[in-house]
Design brief:
Layout: H1 2-17, H2 34-43, H3 53-65, H4 67-81, H5 90-110, H6 114-148, H7 160-181, H8 186-190, H9 195-221, H10 244-257, H11 261-273
Length: about 270
């Protein structure tokens, strides 16, 4: 009995010196299936009283100023709830609000009708946001699980829901820059036939794409189960050393040829909804 009490006392002292906190009460060691996770997420989609909008707003703010802090929470969620992907749809609800706000801004800028507004909103949500996101998330999800997974973590995987969350994180700053901030300068500056107008408008596109690439890269780099994620910054074509290189080249060519990228995109959107 004395030896057992001494052993228990020693174990208690060792646990106090451990750098890791004990697992919380809500910790789940069993992994739910993707269908169960999706069901629980969708079930909470209209329960606004259960959503943490304050934290979602914090995430949106830090996606601009310190996106690496946002991804720390995803690792915490893996430790407590056995999943990297969000289980709170508050971020998606706030993103939907910004999509609607951006559509209203485009409606006034392009002088669209109410019917054209709804058409543009549907196109922005289901093509620009969801459609493009499904393609990017699926490609990076497949590559991550088949080529970047560490041998010690073969029993785990990067959830597709997390890959889509990474897209939403990267999409939000680009949405604000191109569909909100840019609209305040469209008529007074960007739409004008001046060199500075093209410089300012096209530079916003470079910044928006840079945000998307960087935040996407951070989303996979922060995962402890992946390795060599810096390869995600390399292009598929070996000649190019960095995915922003073609973007910068197009930016320089656009200035040299007098191509206003924003005006082209605005004409495209106008054509799609009118």
């Amino acid at each position: 009995m004395v030896n057992r009490s001494v052993e228990n006392s020693f174990n208690n002292r060792e646990s106090l010196r451990s750098p890791y906190l004990p697992a919380p009460v809500t910790h789940r060691r069993d992994c739910m299936s993707a269908a169960v996770k999706r069901y629980r997420y969708l079930r909470r989609l209209f329960k606004f009283q259960q959503m943490d909008f304050e934290f979602a707003f914090w995430q949106m703010t830090y996606l601009f100023i310190a996106p690496q802090k946002v991804y720390r929470n995803f690792n915490y969620r893996k430790e407590t709830k056995s999943q990297f992907a969000r289980d709170d749809p508050a971020f998606l609800v706030l993103l939907s609000f910004w999509l609607c706000f951006a559509s209203i801004a485009f409606t006034f800028i392009l002088n669209l009708s109410i019917w054209a507004f709804f058409k543009f909103l549907v196109y922005l949500i289901f093509v620009d946001c969801i459609g493009f996101g499904i393609i990017v998330a699926t490609i990076l999800w497949y590559i991550s699980n088949h080529y970047f997974l560490k041998p010690a973590y073969q029993g785990q995987d990067v959830e597709w829901g997390y890959a889509f969350d990474v897209h939403l994180n990267a999409f939000f700053p680009s949405l604000i820059i191109l569909h909100v901030f840019q609209m305040f300068f469209y008529h007074v500056l960007i739409s004008q036939d001046w060199f500075f107008s093209r410089l300012f408008g096209n530079l916003l596109w470079v910044v928006a794409i840079g945000y998307y690439v960087y935040i996407t890269f951070l989303g996979y780099t922060c995962l402890p189960i992946l390795q060599r994620t810096q390869v995600l910054l390399y292009p598929m074509v070996p000649v190019l050393l960095y995915p922003m290189v073609p973007v910068l080249l197009i930016f320089i060519v656009s200035l040299a040829t007098g191509w206003n990228v924003t005006q082209t995109v605005m004409d495209f959107y106008h054509y799609r909804v009118v």
